[in-house]
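=== Structure Prediction Worksheet ===
Name of assembly: unnamed complex
Input type: mixed (protein and possibly other molecules)
Chain count: four
Listed entries:
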Amino acid sequence: MDNVVSEFISDELHEECGVFGIYDLAGGEVASSIYYGLFALQHRGQESCGIAVSDTNGPKGVVKSCKGMGLVNEVFNPDNLSNLHGNIGVGHVRYSTAGASSVENTQPLVLNYVKGTLALAHNGNLTNAPELKNELSYTGAIFQTTIDSEVIAYHIARERLNTPNVESAVKNAMMKIKGAYSLIVMSPRKLIGARDPFGFRPLVIGKRDNAYVLASETCALDAVSAEFVRDVQPGEIVTIGADGIESDTSLCIQKPARCIFEYIYFARPDSYLDGVSVYNSRIMAGKILAQMHPCEADIVVGVPDSGNVAAMGFSLESGIPYGMGFIKNSYVGRTFIKPKQSVRESSVKIKLNVLKEVVNGKRVVMIDDSIVRGTTSERIVRMLKTAGAKEVHVRISSPPFLNPCYFGTDVPSCDQLIAHNNTVEEICKMLGADSLGYLDGERLSELIAGDSGYCDACFSGRYPVDPPQDDIRGDYDK
Amino acid sequence: MDNVVSEFISDELHEECGVFGIYDLAGGEVASSIYYGLFALQHRGQESCGIAVSDTNGPKGVVKSCKGMGLVNEVFNPDNLSNLHGNIGVGHVRYSTAGASSVENTQPLVLNYVKGTLALAHNGNLTNAPELKNELSYTGAIFQTTIDSEVIAYHIARERLNTPNVESAVKNAMMKIKGAYSLIVMSPRKLIGARDPFGFRPLVIGKRDNAYVLASETCALDAVSAEFVRDVQPGEIVTIGADGIESDTSLCIQKPARCIFEYIYFARPDSYLDGVSVYNSRIMAGKILAQMHPCEADIVVGVPDSGNVAAMGFSLESGIPYGMGFIKNSYVGRTFIKPKQSVRESSVKIKLNVLKEVVNGKRVVMIDDSIVRGTTSERIVRMLKTAGAKEVHVRISSPPFLNPCYFGTDVPSCDQLIAHNNTVEEICKMLGADSLGYLDGERLSELIAGDSGYCDACFSGRYPVDPPQDDIRGDYDK
Amino acid sequence: MDNVVSEFISDELHEECGVFGIYDLAGGEVASSIYYGLFALQHRGQESCGIAVSDTNGPKGVVKSCKGMGLVNEVFNPDNLSNLHGNIGVGHVRYSTAGASSVENTQPLVLNYVKGTLALAHNGNLTNAPELKNELSYTGAIFQTTIDSEVIAYHIARERLNTPNVESAVKNAMMKIKGAYSLIVMSPRKLIGARDPFGFRPLVIGKRDNAYVLASETCALDAVSAEFVRDVQPGEIVTIGADGIESDTSLCIQKPARCIFEYIYFARPDSYLDGVSVYNSRIMAGKILAQMHPCEADIVVGVPDSGNVAAMGFSLESGIPYGMGFIKNSYVGRTFIKPKQSVRESSVKIKLNVLKEVVNGKRVVMIDDSIVRGTTSERIVRMLKTAGAKEVHVRISSPPFLNPCYFGTDVPSCDQLIAHNNTVEEICKMLGADSLGYLDGERLSELIAGDSGYCDACFSGRYPVDPPQDDIRGDYDK
Amino acid sequence: MDNVVSEFISDELHEECGVFGIYDLAGGEVASSIYYGLFALQHRGQESCGIAVSDTNGPKGVVKSCKGMGLVNEVFNPDNLSNLHGNIGVGHVRYSTAGASSVENTQPLVLNYVKGTLALAHNGNLTNAPELKNELSYTGAIFQTTIDSEVIAYHIARERLNTPNVESAVKNAMMKIKGAYSLIVMSPRKLIGARDPFGFRPLVIGKRDNAYVLASETCALDAVSAEFVRDVQPGEIVTIGADGIESDTSLCIQKPARCIFEYIYFARPDSYLDGVSVYNSRIMAGKILAQMHPCEADIVVGVPDSGNVAAMGFSLESGIPYGMGFIKNSYVGRTFIKPKQSVRESSVKIKLNVLKEVVNGKRVVMIDDSIVRGTTSERIVRMLKTAGAKEVHVRISSPPFLNPCYFGTDVPSCDQLIAHNNTVEEICKMLGADSLGYLDGERLSELIAGDSGYCDACFSGRYPVDPPQDDIRGDYDK
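=== Predicted Assembly ===
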């Protein structure tokens, strides 16, 4: 869940962003609430973060912002927080692949345009960003970042010229951009939340006294003691102004395509997304695994932290006792750099150690959320065997990754996916496991309690939106 | 386990140190192994850390060291690690109370004396340090730190004048110092491990190819792929030299007094201390709680991370299902500073969130390792109730704290201990809990599988060594 | 010349930028030369700096850049410099007023547009930036910074749509922008230097083997061992491509308006600007002062560092011996923060001390380059008297400041200018001086050896270009 | 004067320390005055600095200190200064050779001993430190630093056992230590200043209202608006207590040996040392040079900053006009690291540029304070010639360096001294100069207005105290 260990990273997936917005109609300061909210969303992005605030009662369009590379508690401190005066604001946490990791690309994007200032925070990936950038450049646009948010901002700015208000401009812009976006836009007097019609990424509404909150996940509402109001619907635009909240659902479609992997891995288990408890989804994933891939074993363990809930589900269904198989070192931090002279020690050992007492002499069911390249899984199986496990039965609470994701996560290209090039049997052998079972793709809908519309393209290859034609990476490197 | 949140801190206990030493008889570099070992011991001290190394084949007594305030991954980087050339070395992680938290007090202590150089790493607290400092000062000694290690170093240096080798000097020094110490001493050609006769703090021996390792806990041996050889016995001095390992047990006594709280809280569950699995100790603590303080309930949850294993033990014994009641935010980091403008948000929420799905509508048994002042426990009980728990039955896997510790932990003075001033019934009410049960002090020996000698002074008031006469805090503040 | 001391700052003027560009036609690396060049231009801006480089033989339009707040030796280090591979590049040092001091506003501005990448470094201030931003915003432009360079970049990008090459686009853009600009533009295959038709700010051309260099001042050529070729003429565009250097002078005008204060204060004395030695200009200023405002005195001293050369000129003309009246503490650094508890010590004393031996019992002529608010001058006069000076005759090597500057310096608004509100006699009294003489505005042309066209608007109020209609400060604050 | 440029460093000499102490009898805070005082002494040491303060009315012996690597304005900030409460304190700036440059060696040394706390700041070098350390170690002493101050502290601590007060202990200690030391000792209730009997290093007394000040140079008194009272005499001990200042001169000797190079180079020209103006000393050095080594020339220039005053003296005596031959870049800072890819640019160019206008076509007399290895001088001569100087006549305001210094400066060993291995004629040729003249050693006494006792061992080889028998560098490397 974090890019802790260089070796380790290669086998972990990353969400690309989390967003948080708040508008206190009664005029209270909001920077510290955004700070707390971003802490709760830190798992969605550990590379950079930022906060932009404004005062709806102050001079129009004065935005104060602070952004930087690093974790929330590295970028913010009492001094810079206390400068962020305002009763409306938006925050962002970000992960990105290395190339575009730079301070220019931090969010929220803060800008001036014809109607004053805007601040944007965006979670997701547009699939037609290159085409849109190309089109825009032929009208004289310049791009100072390599993030999609800049493309969205341009469209809002241009639409705003011919629309009566910013929410209409957002709507018109949404009719041009394609792909995944959960978006929070702060204008001088309004806070707008919008979600793409497929609803790839989550976005929820909360309320605390006179303040409305928008956030990627409900866990961020809990962090600021806000009550959950409802999810922003896929395709919906909500506009929070001095008079309260308004909704435009005219872009909503029949059947959205929520990212199923949010439930399996990305989101925090204490969050509820589109009415579904992430915790329950994972319990269910574990139960299905136990049904489809039962095995004789003495203990079920989860690979921390993400495998633990599914392991409990497996245990509940199979009757095999749940155990704590691993100790995770929580002090490793965001980055781990191997010493130059190091040869022997494996970096996976820095992060995890097996509880010998739990697995020694046992037949172990090991639950993990996914296998990307397979390197980490192989090491963990080996650690379990070294600790005395008689058998290791690997169960994965998702189907095999076969296709890249273009909607806001970093599932790598096919040739790096172990499941793309190998059968389950071959993978099992490569891991050194005694058996291997993946979640059956046919049963994914059970994770979200009925097929209310989800995206499983990374497993099935069925993309709800056409993939981008070219690589969407920018061509300069700051 | 970490001093994360300022409010939170007040209700957590801290170990005061972890030590790690290694001597590669074949001449290999050891700095990176010490670095990995300190990572695994980080839970024993997050305030400062350091490494000192030497080359037993190089010019006699050249020690290279690097120390600093902060976590292992904050203080060390590839550059400073690559400067630490040598095949023998010692490392240290440290926690201290605020007053003496300074770079002068970081360890290992590196010094020159009559026979060249010494480096010392020390876990524990001497009870006669003030008297010894006083005595030493009357012979013209000067003290540049406020750590006991300096007192130990002086005694070794003075004894060395009349002893044939450094291990004899260590032994003679041990006859003068009183209290708790697990000590690693690096001389130009030897690595020495020593443990006070009561064995308050742990110290283990490991081996990897031609290298001997000394460490506070076995989890550090795992981290460097060393095999566990045995524990250093209470009172034993082991000397690792070019010819291998030698032992002097002449200071060993009949019945040691190992800190029982290492098993309950301080040590990592994957460690084995003096032949006992910490994990098993905690499972047993949970089982005893279930026997002594049973209750009708629907789910058992542990306060993460330290309450989880005992919660499993309670579940195993009681048959009440184990559940994951909380999500812990692992990104909060070592320090958390509340924003100045913050009024509403409780900092405990930054670190923990309740899994509503698990506790809503349930009668909950909540297991924690201890209650110090009670403030954190009260908040967590309230969070559970807010999340819908019908009842909250608090079970504590240790007896009530009634007395301060003088042997290397920071159990505060009596007047701050909730149990010192209140009955169990009163505490239960203060916590807002529906029932409260502590581990029975009489059954503590079961945690370590028979009374092989342990210290429970913080619970019982039976101090194996006389407490210090004065406060041992130094009187200058760097 | 540097914003050293908070109190002190208020009475110093600041240049707003320095630029440096280089294109090595033979393909050699240029980052280190830019680094050395920026060091030599550091006096033109100490707030932030940046370097952007590209490889004309590599994939088209890949730009690597590094920017940051602080001095050149604070922002750059061997690691980040060694990542800046390329044989063409541009660098920038910047000063700005506090409000817009942020990392977003650092230069060079690096961007993508229809033809790939551009990097811009700009010295000066546009006077029609607000109007242009307004116009652009009505075509949907968004602004992520508050620097004029972004406006220039937009115009180049838009003009590029209808022009055959980037230099034509620069030219067309120049026909729209008004005010002061010395500009270096790096396109994938060309380095372009341009200077506004009035030539407010300097720009010179140098050459070293196969490399062409553009820089604000010749002292930067010296720093990289390049030979001075010639000045870029006011209004000229020079284009350095694979085939060498080309010039377009079609925008040149009859009579430019070079900033006379570059000679008096901003530029380094070892630089030659538009054929005139800055050193000679200052010597001449001192001589004119001696002619116009002679006095009986024993010694002439300059306020370091900027008053020293004019003091020599005064001495040469008057025959009164030149002396070193002050010691300047060169260790104070860029920023000086007064301790909270400080009451007594004046911060001016941190930076300067009087050489008693030189002034005690003497009638002193004290030469400074200008008086802005008068606070610093008053303190320095007092220091001289305290050190025993019998008389202090202040001579200022520029006319009185009466009007703000809109062309790239920070001469403050009228109400803060001591000369705007007081007669020379009154100022003399306020300073505690025995006499006061300013340089006569009529004789300014002698500083540059004949009236080849200069701007003295800050003294005379004769603006060569209409001042901006509104305040040009941006309205958001990052 | 600062270790700016790696190449450059090799040819500059360094003072090894500056000290500052203050005791406000009226109880006022002193930390900010120490801060200002250290700023004024920064030229005496740029590697590390520190402040220790105490409250003479507070609990006895509570010392607060803050030390660190770097310049005064890098180590101190309003936060850490505001924690340094107290009305008595001592500060230190330090330079050292690379090996022992570490945070352990920063001063003031703060320690506990039999009578409470002591803080020591020391300028100079003991010549018998190795023997004393050896002796001490045979009584069981341990050494945690490699600085002489620790040896002095041990002796004071030991003597204190048998003396009625700390000043007597200092005196007894002084009878054992040999070499150069200007020392400030802070005990809980007294501030003591002591100077070795030869008075190698300066130490002055100042007064401001109710506060007494001790400092290395008078320029530090000016910085805190204190009036100069008198110099501490060589061999004198002054004790400032609640009742004022007392003096013990019983260790004073007939003829001291003040370091003559303080006047020539180390001290600031605005300081007065032992009754002599440093400025006047340098003017005199220039005059003597003009008398002894006259030449036909058009202009006299000084190598900044240290050569400027002597250049004025030369001009005064010879009648050849004084000119500003060089521009020094004051933004280079303390450290300059050459970029890895740099090949061409000479680092001396970063720091200095020639004013062509001044030297072109002229016969130039170039005054510098000394030549150590000759590398820098050679480059500067070359720069002058490249700038068009017809002739360059080098005049050095000190005699040739022939011997190392053991009394607190870093004159290197003989084999690195150009004058040790070459005749003046040879050196002249190596420098590429047209003539070369050194100050005549016979006339050194004129610099300090009569032979009141000075040390010129680095020139003459006449050491007032026997040089140390062994190298005094410590043998461990932190």
